[in-house]
Amino acid sequence: MLDKLQVERERGITVKAQTAALRHKGYLLNLIDTPGHVDFSAEVSRSLAVCDGILLLVAANQGVQAQTIANFWLAFEKNIQMIPVINKIDLPGADVKAVETQLKNLFEFNADECLHISAKSGLNVEKILEAIIERVPPPSAEVDRPFRALIFDSQFDHFRGAIAYILVKEGSLKKGDKIRSFNNDKSYDVAEVGVMRPDMVKCTELRAGQVGYLVCNMRTVQEAKVGETLYSAATDKDTVQTFAEIKGVQPTVYAGLFPVETSDYENLKQAVERLCLNDPSVTVTPDSSKALGLGWRIGFLGVLHMEVFGARLSQEYDASVILCQPSVEFRALIKDNESIRKRRYEGLAEVRILDPSRFPDESDVEKFLEPMVKVRMIVPNEMMGTVNGLCSECRGERGEISSIDSTRLMILWRLPLAEIAVDFFERLKKLTSGYASFDYEPDGWQETKLVKLAILINGKEVSEFSQILPAAMARERAKTLVQRLKREIPRQQFEVTIKGGSRCPGFEKKMGGAEQTRSAGFFRAKFRF
Ligand SMILES: Nc1nc2c(ncn2[C@@H]2O[C@H](COP(=O)(O)OP(=O)(O)OP(=O)(O)O)[C@@H](O)[C@H]2O)c(=O)[nH]1
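Above: the input record for the complex with guanosine-5'-triphosphate. Below: its predicted structure, written as tokens.
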């Protein structure tokens, strides 16, 4: 019901938090359904900023997943009331007792706190609503004060402009009211308010404690930014209390984004801005390339997030884009030499490496650093060896292992982000027949050796296609690239060379003939790696 986006329906996953208001026995409950995948964790943290309670859902046949633990701690730190719910008890593989043990061992939930339901058959679902009413405190809301609300999500509508989803903390709001935004400092006449049921339904008034949507002719997407405070135009700005900042999540992978046709740049720019309104966890920096023209370097929370962003641009905005190979951010500590630092690196001692075309000269570099992550996996006992094997292959350092019940282990590893950014989860799932779950968080930086794999087309480097990666990963990656290029490039037209730098000596592979019938449009359409 709540997965409305085409990409969600196609992939069967939630990528966007959705709100639904429902009435039950005289109470108004506002629910937010959040995604489960680690790439969309920003949706969870943002939703927690406006919730008074959470339902911690665990499937009876799968048990606690790695992301359940991450989400538990997010809610715990905010001191939000939690209701543990064990779902899918209708399945033959359901083991309610085992899940109860896990919930006790990991989070100290007692068995009598846990609800046992089947969302499919509807069994005991009613009890969830009762539990929300009994256990979750009502929102603190003062209806008699002047209007004040927080924008916790927003979306661009092709017909009505920016639509803000708000939590009304104080007062009330109706059509015709005059309001102001605190950070943007603009004033608006309210054109429409309503609630999500889960589709937008107009209503006459939103009152303190409610969440709903607001249309007020916000013309640019910046005006409906998440975290903005709205208040009654009659209130003196100096007396307005703003909401605590909704902390952003740092991107983990970056990729170049360019229009297929350079003439589409302006349209794509608008589409990117509008989509970012609904997905504020991406970071956007303008970028330009000799081969691909004007575009952006975009930061995502993972490769799935990147793929979903690309799919949404094409499905919701009809945009054709080139997304280059994703890469993590590396850093270089520049040698302690004032004149080199000044001349070449804007005086910086440490530079960020996000773009192969701006790879520092190796002789200027004291050391390279790569980002590390703490990975948490939950796996069946008998698969420990397999999982540990995979992690050591990925240059990992083993951390603690603990059992969460008699059949499952929680395994911690410290791994380079570059190793897990692309296909680690797929490999883990394959090796464990889908039984392992995985979650990670940033864990500092570590010295590394970096290699630039340069891709030359007809003898010229196309830096957007070139890649920077740890030397340990270079040979494997180069081999995959060779295979891919063999499939994708018409050899009579292009000669492609992949060159390893000094740290990947001798790696040079040429393919195709050298005929100079270069067609930029073709390049753009063809190179989507
Ligand atoms: N047998 C059974 N299947 C269920 C039950 N609840 C959900 N499912 C199935 O489990 C699958 C996943 O359901 P979703 O609701 O998409 O799961 P989710 O946890 O929201 O996943 P994300 O959308 O990625 O966050 C679907 O195929 C559902 O039909 C249940 O109580 N019993």
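Notes for the reader.
The radius of gyration is 26 Å.
Residues 13-14, 35-36, 87-88, 90-91, 118-120 surround guanosine-5'-triphosphate (CB under 6 Å).
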